[in-house]
Write the structure tokens for this entry.
Amino acid sequence: MSFSQPTRSTEAAPVRPSERPGRRFDITQPFKLDCGIDLAPFTIAYQTYGRLNDARSNAILVCHALTGDQYLAEPHPITGNPGWWSTLAGPGKVLDTTRYFIICANVLGGCMGTSGPQDINPATGEPWGLSFPVITIGDMVRAQRLLIDHLGIDTLFCVIGGSMGGMQVLQWAASFPERVFAAAPIACAARHSAQNIAFHEVGRQAIMADPEWCGGAYLKKGSRPARGLAVARMAAHITYLSEPALHRKFGRNLQNRQAVTYGFDADFQVESYLRHQGITFVDRFDANSYLYITRACDYFDLAAEHGGALANAFRDTKTRFCVISFTSDWLYPTAENRAVVHALNAAAANVSFVEIATDKGHDAFLLEEPEFFATLRGFLAGCAEHRGLAFP
Amino acid sequence: MSPDGSFVRSATRNGTPPADIRSDLRLIAEMVAPGSRVLDIGCGDGVLLAHLARSREVDGRGMELSQSGVNACVSHGLPVIQGDADGDLDNYPSDAFDYAILSQTLQATRNPRLVLGNLVRIGRRAIVSFPNFGHWRIRAHLLFNGRMPITPLLSHAWYDTPNIHFCTIKDFVALCTELDITIERSLTLDRAGRPFALDAGGGLANLLAEQGLFLLRRRNT
């Protein structure tokens, strides 16, 4: 497949949200965003697994990462790939759907059913594009709280997520501590570092440099910035891996050839792999959504919201925390996770912290890592005991 | 932080079931008031924390250096963070716990003086135990062999020991005086962790005890 002609993406039929599995929650009340704009009406698309118990005490909210969605434990409606956390969530698994009621909502600004820039602005009858308001991690979490209210759940047994999902977990614990019994922020940080912002900026610039982006109005113009979005994904994908993992997987191996071609085809397997990652990504993701969600990450700085001291975000918290990092994660390194732990210690919070040894980089939180799973399983079991959850 | 040596607290290592914990740990547990908040620094695989939670309804937290120890604790539902006494105590607020426990780890810290100060700061009380380097067998070993002592309790060679700051019971008592720390209780123990009927302040204890166990608090509180 040649990268310069991503035919699959341009021919992909537009996916109708109404045909996707899952549920929708429509909000008509004006929703005040951090940027000052009232958003109304808007929709939250979400998915649930398992059954809410009579006491409504067994709900786990899973917060998805930058390019994740609500389909964590079932085949993806567009790609057909297994759910992004299907290794972790399901009957008898760590997020045991026979015990817990798992909720996962597409984030605000997303492109899998929750309102975002690709949807129609009811005021104009045209796609929002760049007229969609800029959203924050705080906005995402406050929108999720509306959903939790709607589902009649007072206290979530646990809020869990990795990467940007972990940031939402921290925001949940800081904003609504009384509604979060346990929190598991994984491979994340309490603020986006300069390096994090820099990588996101590369991705955004790649999208905006694509002439098909049309100043963000590509839906109106009938075009699609597939190449820009693919390059953004390729750059980001490198940050999700580690040098040892890339080397182990690809080394300097050549792609279907015996020698280099003295040209700019994908001679190396790693090039071919990245091109594939880029091309398949554009089938399921909206370029403007990518701009908005990366921006939300960049704006995230939990300490700044609390007078510059992260510990203040967790003052008097009763929530039980489990912070998990991975040794080879250089995107959200252990030091950033440990800063969260130190802040929780300073707030005398109940916190567990484990650094998992792995060479799989940031992506490790999506992979089957036995120590990671055992840690999470034990943490949830301990919390369930304290919460008085009885399982058959 | 548990140095990888004879002092690592591990139920599996000692082959004892969790219900029957090591004698010195049981003595520590008996110093802890029921229902209190406890930080166990160098908690190993959580034997003492689990015992305290079970037998004294303690709200316990742990700190441990080894990933295997932390994972064992957290996967058993014990709240434990990966960290060490030298680097990770500064962040805790004063009086965050009723007890801060440091068992058989002080001699393995980089700065025992700061660690001890932190213990009595973040805990209203601190419980500290350590091997007594003034024990007659160690003195005799050095005197007669002229080599660094290797005993059942101190089983490392000088070049690979994690125990970098040995002290005697007398040294420890002197440091407590210097740091304005009140010794509320002291126990002297034999190798198996059984208590002697000897006052830790006396010279005889410094000669005969293989371990010291102290209940401390800062003065003026």
In short: The CA atoms of residues 199 and 236 of chain A lie 7 Å apart. The longest helix of chain A spans residues 370-387. Chain A touches chain B through 29 residues (CB under 8 Å).
